[in-house]
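Today's session is about reading a structure prediction critically. Students often jump straight to the picture, but the first step is always the sequence itself: look for stretches that repeat, for charged clusters, for runs of hydrophobic residues. Only then move on to the predicted structure, which in these notes is written as discrete structure tokens rather than atom positions. Here is the chain we will use throughout the hour.
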Amino acid sequence: MRLVRVLLCASALAIVGLGRAQADIVEAKSVIDSVVVHPDAATVTRKASLDIGAGASTILFKNLPFALDPASLRVAGEANGRVSIGAVEARIAPPDAKTADTAVEARLKQLRAERDRLQVTIDALEAKQAMIVRFSQSGPEKLSPEARPLALGEWNAAFDAIGAALAHTGEDLRAARAKEKDLDDEIHALESGQGRSTPQRPAREVAVAVESQAAGRLQLALTYLVGDASWRPAYDARLDTGGKDRKPQLELIRRASVTQHTGEDWSDVALSVSTTRAQRGAAAPEVQPQRVGFWEPPVPLAARAGNAASSERADKRNRAFEAPAPAAPALQDAPKPAPAEQQVATLEANAFQATFKIAGLNGAPSDGSTKSFILSSRRIEPALAIRIAPALDATAYLEARIVNEEDAPLLPGVVAVQRDGVYVGSSRIALVAPGEAAEFGFGADDKVKVVRAPVKRVENEPNWFGQTKFETRDFKTTIKNLHDFAIHAAVVDQVPFSESTAITVETLPQTTQPSEKHLGDKRGVMAWSFDAQPGETKEIRLAYRVKWPADRDIVTQPAPPLAR
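Below is the predicted structure for this chain, in token form.
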């Protein structure tokens, strides 16, 4: 008997010891403290402050977005005593037990109470109606207060009183029953929907194992990378063309448009945007060997479809040049005593990346709405020039050239363009690295007149087999500066080029010597640069000859654009 008691006590002590050895599970009430938005993802930092006991504990972060990258989880902490952080586990949150929709329950309770009150009113009206009917069925001798028959002259008054009472009570009863039906329909609809399972967006939870020497307060920071979030750059380019006594000024405003579908709202957080692409990859792609073989021509139908598509793309490109977007009407700026200052971000940059910290506490909803922030604003003295592409559009366009002197690159994006307070359209810019130059277009310059006219076009018709066929083209472009000041001009034109030895293209001697023969490494595209003085007229000639075998036909098509 004594041995049994000892064994029972030992078992009890073992159970108690086992219970103490098990880790306490503590749910962390975390809040989002900061978010760094990348062009393709976001880095979120949550913070939590909680009390833990001595020994092992498991801190549980719940309701985290399903799209977070488990490999990106990082945990840091602070405590008064010695605390060690162990394993960090990301797992899919178990489905919650079906919980009643509190909003539906509250509405049902309200409707049922209103239905009970309405039933009391209906019962009272029905009793009143029954009493009036019984009163109307009594004989005339019982209608008088003295229990004597009513006089014949009082019958009409009695009929009118009974009829009016029945009509009034009947109308009230009809309205009450109609309201009763509406309440019953709404209650039935809500009760029918209660049993349906509402699809819930999957979520994750993160468990963090900690070991503490003593009970105390612990502060944890959980950081993770989550997809379904991005930012896109946008720019405002506002040009003041200046005058005789003042130089031109260009105000370049850099904006960030933040969008996210992570499932968690970012509210009152320290928000930053980074130029680093978090999901692009950390290493260069592996180059694989390529094998070359003879080209097999496609079937004629596919060839015709390809030529049609190519011609359609060429027509679209030509229409885009021939029909530029119309300029919007001028913006009438009302005079203000003092302009409000724009809140800009703080730039933190190094040799490989740039991060803009947006001032104050901000946020972005999780419904995909776009929220725009101003990152930077600076004024630059640009170099103004006009650019002309007479083969496509006989119009001089004003351009402003600047150098990106910031430590952050100008990422590709849309530019909204204003010239002297007037919106003139929008364009796009490619990536502009720090220290690199960029050009912005600012619409047509009507004080520079451009005329492009053909001077000569000669074609031969061969008379015998094997003769060479040729075509000669000659154009003259006239540029006249109607400004009262000199302006730098750049004229861009082109001659076709051939990749076949059977087709030759030669530039004729009457062509004006270009400043650049291959502008932007584009074959056949050349430019002439000069300063046009006030009232000065410049002429540029462009002439070339194409030769090819007479038994073949040639076609001129746009070359594929260069990869940037």
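Discussion point for the tutorial: Confidence is low (pLDDT under 50) at residues 1-21, 302-306, 316-331.
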